[in-house]
């Protein structure tokens, strides 16, 4: 290591106090907001699960209906012509 | 398999021998620059805040050179950014909240 590092700088106590206090406040705020959001998400997940069940049921019904219509159309086409 | 384990342990030992002087240099600077403020610094901190507030009130900030003002802005921004670093640590995720 040929890089010449200078002498350590005496950082003012106000700046050091500001840095460490902001760091601590940030950690506390992050933890608090995370817990708040995760609690909110529990309720949202329940509602989404209900909606998904309804959506899945509707999609299954639509698919069944489409299959039946297709089968009927094919049967109509392949039956002898009613002239 | 034994070859890989030997090479791994040799790597770790070289890492440790290389890291010790570098860690010593880091500690030399950290002890002076990074230490959290002790209660003995309280009067200095209070004086600093008083000087800041009085300087803002009397208008002494208009007499700063642009260079000094720019440096002060950079330092203030850096102090504020530590809040967001702390927030990342608190939410335990780097970008955004993971719920």
From TrEMBL, chain A:
Name recorded for this polypeptide: ATP synthase F(0) complex subunit e, mitochondrial
Complexes and interactors: F-type ATPases have 2 components, CF(1) - the catalytic core - and CF(0) - the membrane proton channel. CF(1) and CF(0) have multiple subunits.
Record's subcellular location: Mitochondrion inner membrane
Keyword rRNA-binding belongs to the record: no
UniProt KW Ribosomal protein keyword: no
Keywords: Acetylation, ATP synthesis, CF(0), Coiled coil, Hydrogen ion transport, Ion transport, Membrane, Mitochondrion, Mitochondrion inner membrane, Transport
Domain of life, per lineage: Eukaryota
BP GO annotations: proton motive force-driven ATP synthesis
UniProt main location, coarse: mitochondrion
Organism: Polypedilum vanderplanki
GO cellular component: mitochondrial inner membrane; proton-transporting ATP synthase complex
UniProt similarity note: Belongs to the ATPase e subunit family.
Molecular function, one GO term: proton transmembrane transporter activity
Biological role stated in the UniProt entry: Subunit e, of the mitochondrial membrane ATP synthase complex (F(1)F(0) ATP synthase or Complex V) that produces ATP from ADP in the presence of a proton gradient across the membrane which is generated by electron transport complexes of the respiratory chain. ATP synthase complex consist of a soluble F(1) head domain - the catalytic core - and a membrane F(1) domain - the membrane proton channel. These two domains are linked by a central stalk rotating inside the F(1) region and a stationary peripheral stalk.
Recorded coiled-coil stretches: 44-77
PANTHER family attached to this UniProt entry: ATP SYNTHASE E CHAIN, MITOCHONDRIAL, ATP SYNTHASE SUBUNIT E, MITOCHONDRIAL
From TrEMBL, chain B:
One GO CC term, this protein: proton-transporting ATP synthase complex
Record's subcellular location: Mitochondrion membrane
BP terms from Gene Ontology: proton motive force-driven ATP synthesis
Gene Ontology molecular function, alphabetical: proton transmembrane transporter activity
Alphabetic keyword roster: ATP synthesis, CF(0), Hydrogen ion transport, Ion transport, Membrane, Mitochondrion, Transport
Pfam family, one: ATP-synt_G
Keyword ATP-binding: no
The keyword NADP is assigned to this record: no
Protein family: Belongs to the ATPase g subunit family.
PANTHER family (alphabetical): ATP SYNTHASE SUBUNIT
UniProt name for this protein: ATP synthase subunit g
Species: Polypedilum vanderplanki
